[in-house]
UniProtKB/TrEMBL annotation:
This is PadR family transcriptional regulator. Residues 8-84 form the Transcription regulator PadR N-terminal domain. Pfam families: PadR. It comes from the Bacteria. InterPro entries: Metal_resp_DNA-bind_regulator, Tscrpt_reg_PadR_N, WH-like_DNA-bd_sf, WH_DNA-bd_sf. Coiled coil: none annotated.
Length: 203
């Protein structure tokens, strides 16, 4: 999965029509290169690939005055479905890298609140299972005897435990916050961040 692919789809979906330079300037202004590994080259590649796959329509705009000729993109019905599928993966599937989750969190207001809570609930179930598996694995590790692991491996096991617990506890808090009414979502405001025709500017 590609966070850049999701971000590009979301940008075009929100703006309804956009060109590569505008997308690149705005995403890089958000520092998406740092939290989503989004680079200028990957943005243009994503646009071309999404158009090739039928998720975006290409519109050639001729030059006018000081504006050079450019290619504008608009999202297709299939592209909208792909956006929702990528959002589901971003919010439900824990991965070693955090770029998809970061993109999903930035864009979650483009979905209805109940949908976001349902997706995050699935993620929490997966994290709870992972936490149980890590705990069980730790209980079976031996640092003495014939098949003993080197003592310093305890540092790795400690990291796994802490990381799993931290992710689980953080997500539990986020879900509680959203359930309590935090943030604004697509079913509550047609101008919510990321909604087509709505806001798409990160303060």
């Amino acid at each position: 999965m590609s966070a850049t692919r999701l971000l590009v789809l979301a940008f075009v979906r929100a703006h309804q029509s956009a060109h590569g330079y505008l997308i690149g300037q705005e995403l890089l202004a958000w520092n998406a290169d740092k939290w989503a590994n989004t680079k200028t080259g990957s943005i243009y590649h994503a646009l071309r690939q999404l158009a090739k796959e039928g998720f975006l329509d290409e519109i050639d705009v001729p030059s006018s005055g000081t504006a050079p000729a450019r290619t504008e993109y608009s999202i297709t019905e299939a592209g909208d479905a792909e956006f929702h599928q990528l959002m589901e993966k971003a919010l439900t599937l824990p991965q070693p890298r955090s770029d998809m989750l970061c993109a999903g969190l930035v864009l979650m207001s483009a979905l209805p609140r109940p949908t976001v809570l349902a997706l995050l609930g699935k993620r929490l179930t997966t994290l709870a299972k992972q936490r149980s598996e890590v705990s069980r694995a730790n209980s079976t590790v031996s640092f003495s005897g014939a098949n003993a692991l080197p003592p310093h491996v305890e540092a790795l096991l400690s990291f796994w435990t802490h990381n799993t617990d931290c992710n689980h506890d953080w997500l539990t808090g986020l879900i509680a916050k959203i359930e309590a009414g935090a943030y604004v979502f697509a079913d509550e405001d047609p101008m919510a961040f990321g909604v087509p025709g709505g806001s798409f500017v990160i303060p």
